[in-house]
Design a protein that fits this description.
By secondary structure, the chain is an alpha+beta fold. It has 3 domains: about 30 residues, no CATH class; about 90 residues, Phosphorylase Kinase, domain 1; about 250 residues, Transferase(Phosphotransferase) domain 1 (Transferase(Phosphotransferase), domain 1, Orthogonal Bundle). Helices cover about 35% and strands about 15% of the residues. The protein has 14 helices and 16 strands. The strands form 5 sheets. It has a 6-stranded antiparallel beta sheet. A 3-stranded antiparallel beta sheet has the order 2-1-3, with no helix packed on it. Strand 12 and strand 13 form a beta hairpin. The protein is globular. About 45% of the residues are buried.
Length: about 425
C-alpha cells in the first residue's frame, strides 16, 4: 500500500498522487506518521500489533474512527475505537459487540462490512470495518443543500436492497440518518452503504433486549412516533419512516419535523403534520406528496409497510417504469432523463388534499436543517413529560362536547 506524505491517507499501489492535497505518495513502510500529542494511538499499532493507525478520520459520542493498516493482509481498514469511559459502560459495550456480531452476518453490498472485534491495550475495544472512499450524505447535503430526484431514487432503491435481509431477520436499524448513509462515488452514480448497526433492535425470538421499555434511542429528526414514545412493538416500519424523512430533506432542503430542542422535535413528530414537499419546492410533483404522507403516517398500521414499497412508490411518483431493482444501478443521467420527460405531465396533477401552507407544520422554524438547531443528533430519553399537541386538542374538544351535553340536559329539565 501507499500513503500520502502529507495527510497519511492510504491508497493502492498503482496510485501516484493524493487526490485530496496533490502530494506524492510513498510506500507505507517508508512514510513516517507524525506523532500527535493529543492522540497517542496515531503512528502506533494496537490490538496485538495487528492494526497500524495512520490518521484520525472522525470523532463521535461513542468513539473515534481511524484509518489504519491491517498488517495481517496489508489492507486499509476503518478502525472504530470506543472512548474509554464508554467502554466501561456494560450496556454500551454490549451494543458494540452486537454491532460486530450482527453486521458480520449481513450482506455487504449496501451495508458497511465489519471484519474484526478486538480489545485494545488501553482497556478499550475496537471494531475493524472496510474503509469507504466517499462522503456521508450529511456532508453532501451540507454542501449541495438538495439532491436531484434521480439521485434520491437511486439512494432509496439501493437501501431497499440493503435492508431487505436485516428486516427479514427482524432487525431494525433504528438510527437511519444522513450521517449513517455513506455515498461511494462512481462514474455511474454513488453506491450507497448503510453504517452503524450499534443501535439495532433485534426482534427475533429469544433476542436479548438492551433497551428499557419507555426509552427512546435514535436521532430525533428522523425518529418515528413509536420510537419517540419508546413503544415495545417497534418494528422495521420505523426504518421506513426514517428513510421517508431523509427523502423529504433531500428534496426540500428541510426536515419534515423541526424544533429547537429534542423534546420540541419529538412533540412535533407526535402531534403535527409536515408540509407537503410540493408546497416547499414547486419542482416536486404532488404525486410525491402522497408517497411521503403515507410513509410518515403516525399510525404504524397505515404506514407504507416496507422500504421496497417506499422505493417503488417513490420512483413511480416521478414517472419511472419498473421497480427499485431496475433503478438501483441505472445510470444516474438516464434516470434523470426519464424523470425530466415525465415531469411536465406530473406537475399538472393537482394536490390530492388541497390546502394552504401551514407555517407551523414543521415546528417553529420552517425550512430548518438539523445542523441549525441541534448539534447532538443522537438522542436518548424517556417519553416526553408533556402530552402530544394532538392529544391536548382532542381533550379540549371532548371537554367542550361534554359541557354542551350538560347544558342541553339542564335546559331540557328546567
Amino acid at each position: 500500500m501507499k500513503s500520502c506524505t502529507r495527510c497519511q491517507r492510504l491508497f493502492d499501489d498503482d496510485a501516484g498522487f493524493c487526490p485530496i492535497d496533490g502530494s506524492a505518495l510513498g510506500l507505507t513502510a517508508e512514510v513516517a506518521v507524525p506523532a500527535d500529542p493529543e492522540d497517542p494511538r496515531i503512528g502506533y499499532s494496537i490490538c496485538g500489533n495487528r492494526y497500524e493507525i495512520r490518521r484520525k478520520v472522525a470523532d463521535g459520542g461513542m468513539g473515534r474512527v481511524y484509518q489504519a493498516i491491517d498488517r495481517s493482509n496489508q489492507t486499509g481498514v476503518a478502525l472504530k475505537v470506543l472512548h474509554q469511559e464508554v467502554a466501561r459502560d456494560a450496556v454500551a459495550l454490549e451494543r458494540f459487540k452486537r454491532e460486530y456480531a450482527l453486521s458480520a452476518e449481513l450482506p455487504h453490498d449496501h451495508i458497511a462490512e465489519v471484519r474484526d472485534f478486538q480489545k485494545t491495550e488501553d482497556d478499550s475495544y475496537a471494531i475493524a470495518m472496510e474503509y469507504l472512499e466517499g462522503e456521508e450524505l450529511r456532508m453532501y447535503l451540507k454542501r449541495e443543500k438538495k439532491l436531484s430526484p434521480a439521485l434520491v431514487v437511486r439512494l432509496l432503491s439501493q437501501l431497499a436492497i440493503g435492508l431487505a435481509q436485516p428486516h427479514q431477520l427482524k432487525l431494525v436499524h433504528r438510527d437511519i440518518k444522513p450521517d449513517n448513509v455513506f455515498l461511494c462515488h462512481t462514474d455511474s452514480g454513488p453506491i450507497v452503504k448503510l453504517l452503524d448497526f450499534g443501535s439495532v433492535r433485534d426482534n427475533s425470538e429469544g433476542a436479548k433486549k438492551l433497551t428499557i421499555i419507555g426509552t427512546t434511542i435514535g436521532s430525533p429528526f428522523y425518529m418515528s412516533p413509536e420510537q419517540a414514545q419508546g413503544l415495545p412493538g417497534l418494528d422495521h416500519r420505523a426504518d421506513v419512516w426514517s428513510l421517508a424523512a431523509i427523502a423529504y430533506e433531500c428534496l426540500t432542503g428541510t426536515v419534515p419535523f423541526g424544533g429547537s430542542s429534542g423534546p420540541q422535535i419529538l412533540l412535533a413528530i407526535l402531534g403535527k403534520e409536515p408540509n407537503p414537499p410540493s408546497t416547499i419546492d414547486p419542482t416536486v410533483p404532488t404525486t410525491v406528496d402522497d408517497v411521503i404522507s403515507d410513509a410518515l403516517a403516525k399510525e404504524v398500521a397505515t404506514r407504507i409497510g416496507t422500504v421496497a414499497e417506499l422505493a417503488d412508490r417513490f420512483g413511480a411518483a416521478y414517472g419511472l417504469q419498473g421497480n427499485h431493482f431496475d433503478w438501483a444501478y441505472a445510470l444516474e443521467h438516464q434516470l434523470a432523463a426519464a424523470i425530466d420527460q415525465a415531469m411536465p405531465r406530473l406537475l399538472m396533477i393537482g394536490p390530492s388534499t388541497p390546502g394552504m401552507l401551514d407555517p407551523d407544520a414543521t415546528g417553529p422554524m420552517l425550512g430548518q436543517r438539523p445542523a441549525d438547531v441541534f448539534k447532538d443528533e443522537t438522542f436518548v430519553m424517556g417519553v416526553p413529560s408533556s402530552p402530544p399537541i394532538g392529544l391536548i386538542v382532542g381533550a379540549v374538544i371532548l371537554a367542550l362536547l361534554v359541557a354542551a351535553a350538560i347544558v342541553l340536559i339542564v335546559v331540557t329539565v328546567f
